[in-house]
Please model this.
Amino acid sequence: MALLQELDTGTPIRTGEPTVTLTIDGRKVSVPQGTSVMAAAALIDNPIPKLCATDNLEAFGSCRLCLVEIEGRKGTPASCTTPAEQGMVVHTKTPRLDRLRRGVMELYISDHPLDCLTCSANGDCELQTQAGNVGLRDVRYGYDGAKHSQGPIDASNPYFSFESSKCIVCSRCVRACEEVQGTFALTILGRGFGSKVATGGVDFLSSECVSCGACVQACPTATLNEKPVIEHGTPERTVVTTCAYCGVGCSFKAELKGDEVLRMVPHKAGKANEGHSCVKGRFAYGYATHKDRILKPMIRGRIEDPWREVSWGEAIAHAASEFKRIQAQYGRDSAGAISSSRCTNEEVFLVQKLVRAGFGNNNIDTCARVCHSPTGFGLSKTFGTSAGTQDFKSVAKADIVVVIGANPTDAHPVFASRLKKRLRAGARLIVIDPRRIDLVRSAHIRADHHLALKPGTNVAVLNAMAHVVVTEGLVDEVFVRERCELGNFESWARFVADPRHSPEATAAATGVDPHELRAAARLYATGGNAAIYYGLGVTEHSQGSTTVMAIANLAMATGNIGREGVGVNPLRGQNNVQGSCDMGSFPHEFSGYRHVSNDTARETFERLWGVPLSNEPGLRIPNMIDEAIDGSFKWLYVQGEDIAQSDPDTTHITAGLKAMECVIVQDLFLNETARYAHIFLPGASFLEKDGTFTNAERRISRVRKAIPPLAGMADWEVTMALANALGAPMRYNHPREIMDEIAATTPTFKGVSYARLDELGSIQWPCNDAAPTGTPVMHVDHFVRGKGQFMLTEYLATEERAGPRFPLLLTTGRILSQYNVGAQTRRTASTVWHHEDVLEIHPFDAEQRGVRDGDLVALASRIGEISLHARVTERVQPGVVYTTFHHAVTGANVVTTDNSDWATNCPEYKVTAVQVRRTNHFSDWQLRDREEGVSLRRMAKALADAAE
Ligand code: SF4
Ligand code: SF4
Ligand code: SF4
Ligand code: FES
Model:
């Protein structure tokens, strides 16, 4: 398969014109100017020995193994640092070069432990390979010369270890940390034999290292090595698949021995990540085989009863008979389903098909409801389709980057590394966020402007930026005239030009310095290619959809749409948020964002599925809960989603679940929602099934089965069995057939098939006759809706306001090592970095409340109260507190309210008025009688004992 081919060219291949032609060992090769002689030789399958070079790092020229002879030049230059030139004649294999290379290698080997046969990298070590390549047979200096480093093995990182005695000081790890990851955690200390790799801390764990694994991958020896490989030896087989965590959608090679995954190696040919990774995708896969996995279906009569293990057949039959009983008793609309953005496109498509064709209603919703539903609404209204406009690579062409309501270094780390690379190369940065996220100030990165707005005022800030653009004559008139609807542009321009939208007039509400805001707006409008990246800090507000439209307005007004380096890019939370929305998971839309009242689209499905379909939008998740409490919604199938933990106002959600007569949870683990379930169906992890995920760039990538489903069935097979039992027949032998059905019914997927995906590696939709290999950049010549539509974006302050009783505003977010509600990452060694959710509070607010760093504090809102430990920090501004929601035991959503986006019901997680006070006990909710409660009680007791 083309996508499995990986060629190590030693140094990066330059792109573009002009090309030069040179002769290497008698063969002619043409390469883009600036390409090294080493890379040119690799392209004609004539690799030159090397140690310090690798093709995702700039050449360093330290090992001297890659020497060549060039006709007309003195000496033996290093091929990795020598650019190919027109007419150059190069020799890579001469007796002199052989002698010199053997001499270099002799020095390396004389200073290296001779334990190849027992070394974990035996057979997978570049030093060993190159020693063979250069024909080293003997070492004249003996084998026990002064070892440059005999320090202890640093095994502090939970996933990899550092054995300094094997280090050849090639500096690849140091450069990978700088160039690829952008963290600068490593350095080389000392000189000559005394030189060694060092972290800024005592060890890797205490250093700045973020465990991305780039150094481990770059290391040509066993110095930096994955712990499972050290323990079990080198892998035997490889399966190329896609990360199951965030919306970056990194491609990985799952490397296995038998059915055990030994490591996940980022795939160089993966276009989303180009060989890079973060700690989650690279290392945190252990949850897939964690002992908490439930591998047998279970049922129970009442949620108070103990679970009873049953066969798949019995569980499915019970679910179907309950469905039939409930629909007969309470009517067609009493049943519904929630699909998951952690499941594949094919699985999501089947769940919505089950609902529409099997239940006869449109009661299907998805967890995207609580994250990016405003993106769907806002971008459809303005541009005509619900998706990011660019590929990730495009950021390399951006001159100005705006990051608003997103924290890429924690939530989308591999994209953050690309972004930081571009920023280090000179792009300018504007951060709009209540918190001082890492991008505001980190190694070699400084934001030009940080607009530290008050939570809930995004729209006011964006309107003020638009005010500056319009009133200072910074509109790209040519773009607007050619590409946008002029009538509504003029209304919009009049609207934002109103003095009430000026930075000065809005400063009291937003808390943003008007001078800073004006400067940021001017920079965005005039600094060249300007790209906007945004996250849940935009969408999870009562004005989430308005904010998305305000962002789109700004991009259109400044002409920053339709080419590389610009655009509007939602950074999607979960791996398949884009895909679950594309697949028709919302109650009002079929796949491809066609409304259920669209007769043409509905008839397409009716013809294929052979049943009449409802043209009425179904229930959203909050409506399902409300109707359950009202007594009319009774049967719910939840695949791969934990609404009892992830959705706001937990008490309301659990009341709704309790009111249902049959709740079916399909998941890897007994999650919070399963507490209220009557039937539990085991789920399958991404390693156990075939399918596709679609990332934030609209990139469809294959998920490939690496091991058989541990519970015997993949999720798509379970949905199919359920459908057949309910009387909605489905027959698929493989997920590829489901994709064929998606392609046959969804115009933007028309050209997608597994064969095409295997051929191209991945495809960005739309993929159809007009774009047979996909569409990296959207809206190039015209918007999907024709002309771009400016929308009026009136700022309406959220009802959730700080007041005397609840004077602080709580906002929430994600941390690097943990993922969403933590169901996966809490079951990995990543808990070493984040074993509990803490509350960030500004020193001023802390002092006023007598709170010290580490104190247990009560966090109360009008909805509920929880307790957690305080972290006193200036990352948050006075008046704002912040926490994560990874640990179920914290119950962060016990305090968040039921406020939601006016257009989509996306919950307003990012603004909750709260009070904070010191306490010495956990809340009643946290101390419910359960495992976590017991451990919290122990912690509470320990705290109380300590206080005495
Ligand atoms: S794991 Fe990543 S962050 Fe840590 S030292 Fe290696 S390259 Fe740097
Ligand atoms: S740890 Fe590995 S990559 Fe780093 S300098 Fe040593 S041998 Fe090279
Ligand atoms: S950046 Fe996202 S997709 Fe990539 S490895 Fe990390 S979690 Fe996985
Ligand atoms: S590979 Fe060229 S000097 Fe090391």
Observations:
- The CA atoms of residues 320 and 726 lie 5 Å apart.
- Confidence is low (pLDDT under 50) at residues 1-5, 929-937, 939-944.
- Residues 312-330 form the longest helix (19 residues).
- The chain is about 30% helix and 15% strand.
